[in-house]
Records
---
Amino acid sequence: VGLQPVGDSAGWFQRVPLARTQGRRPLAVIIDAAADTFPAGSRVNDVNVMGMLRGSDPALRDEFIVVGAHFDHVGIREHPSGDSIFNGADDDASGVIALIEIARVLRAGPAPKRSVLFVAFTGEEVGLLGTNYYLAHPVVPLESTVAQLQIEMIGRPDSLAGGPGRAWLTGYERSTMGDMLAASGVPIVADPRPAERFFYRSDNIAFAYLGIPAHTLSTFGLHTDYHQPSDDVSRIDFEHMTAVIESAALAVRLLADGPRPVWHPGGRPVRGQ
Ligand SMILES: [Zn+2]
């Protein structure tokens, strides 16, 4: 789709070293020196997949918007239905498709002012492993990363967001991002289910803890196929998803060209709260 490779050795992949653990979580991300404390047989090589669309504005092209989705899901498990393959069509193949299509849409139009980094993260479902590795090994400076937008589960409409083509943004009230996007025509509302704490449940939160305004765009309406083998492509509403991707592309263009979002007072999350 016309992006530049910015991963390891100027490729499309950032190697993410993982290790199998005995703890509550099956995998841990190995960051730097800890590698040799894990036995060789326990190590697993994984990757984040990334590409960059360089900005055109001399003053803004060295600022970055990070657009993310996660390409992992929960894997293969025994299930009473007999279907052991958890495809994760909505969670989060829909977000990965959005990532690719947003890149294509932006590439087809005028170059954005800021640069846009697209990352398909690994290991979200087992503790944001790919994101945590990325943040320890960013390919663009974190201090120049002005916003992060995560795309999660946009494959089916959510009536509480207003139905087909409409989405919600986690942590909407925490920063200027939501109002800025909505005022410019992006059909989004605040997360209608704050009790679910979705703001804290995807890759955006790791960026947000570092102070980068970071939110997740979603249309998940608590369908019962969540983390089930029945989260299949046959249940995706493509008309809805296409509309949301078009809105998400507009959102990314606004973030790349417009004022940089800032936290409202008290909006930036603090670890442990
Ligand atoms: Zn997800």
Note: The chain has a mean pLDDT of 93.
---
Amino acid sequence: MRAVGLKERLVYREDWSEPVAQAGEALVRVSLGGICRTDLELVAGYKEYRGILGHELIGRVSQASAVWLDKRVVAEINVACGKCPWCRGGGDDRHCPHRTALGIRGRNGVFADYVTVPEANLRVVPDRVTDLQAVFCEPLAAAFAVLEALPSDGLDVLLCGDGNLGSLIAQVLKRRHRLVWVGRHAHKLALWKERGYDVRTTLDSAERFPIVVEATGNPEALSWAQSHLLPRGTLVLKSTTAAERHLDLNQLVVSEQRVVGSRCGRFEPALAALEEGSIDVESLLEATYPLQDGLLAFERAGTRGARKILLDCR
Ligand SMILES: [Zn+2]
Ligand SMILES: [Zn+2]
């Protein structure tokens, strides 16, 4: 089958073997896949992953137990082992030490004709949600996960980053917090300014916030983000980067600040928000490429300021 993946380098090939669904798994015909920052970081050497890339998808089930057959689905990306002490103790499946993750860790991803996913990971996409919206479900779920890292509603939050993830996080945060949103791209932020967001391209060096969310994907932005954090404040980290990053640990101690990592989120709130139409994902779309142009698509996704690039796998 056709797929885009990582061998020694990024490749598009038509001779990947078609996956075979194991017990409890569904075979999904992929409709659309979304290229995300994590995919670019994997290509750059983050995690030394080898295999088919991609974890953001909308597709249709082609083989599974009867209840799932022919359903339009998205899929949670983490697959826990279900057997280890962490899993048996009721631990969150996103943190099973033996987990695999679609297109990121030990399990082929979605930039392909077909992908296999445990049925337990599938979520039916409501009819009102289009394919183009549904493919944003995974990053939107990751945006909702930021709420889990915050102590309460109604806080003053500084969000750093106007990329795709940043734009989703902004929409999620604005519903429950007072948001100041800093990014580098005035042309991207202009749209959100019109919609009533407090957007900036710079910040007075003295401005400090009790919550700072770092979602730039830029390794150098971390110390800048920390410099705008109040004493006893919380810094929420959303970016994973192949490059190393540095925090001022002395400042953390002296100012008694907290750092919280935040990764994948649950799909339910994301699907519900897409269904009620309260999150705009369409304006984040840059372009859609056919799967066989996957290398071009990755190149475009890696250009500075690029919005979401989709791969059409049909
Ligand atoms: Zn992603
Ligand atoms: Zn486990």
Note: The longest strand covers residues 25-35.
